[in-house]
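Person: Show me a sequence?

Helper:
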Amino acid sequence: MKRFLRNFNFYMFFKIPSAWWSGVRLESIGDTEAQTRVRHRWVNQNPFRSMFWAVQGMAAEFATGAMVMYHIRQSGRPVSMLVINNKANFSKKGTGLLRFRCEDGEAFKKALEAALRTGEGQTVWMKAIGTNSQGDVVSTFLFEWSIKVKANK
């Protein structure tokens, strides 16, 4: 698991540098949940001195996306993944250290098993809830992931 965390954060530096420079990091991952963190800083703030909504969205997407990548890697099969829809709700100003937690590992695992069994594409909605240091919910993001088993060449 530590190796996956290190590799994922290394991957972000080279493949998604805007997320890395904004401070988004994968903090923990397991079969059922993943958590990212990002600290409000000058580089990721909006004119209202809170975290820019898109930075929160990156951290939330990575909480769900890391879970997707984790389960795909465990399957040992080539599977494509893509966000096809998202929704967001903001309930409080994002300042300080924010953590985004996704607990939809089981739901994704079922969708992946169906895709591997049938060969048909599947979609699954996954939620990431962002909280501040006091435990208050700052934002909630929903991402609809589409997965499809890649054809063997």
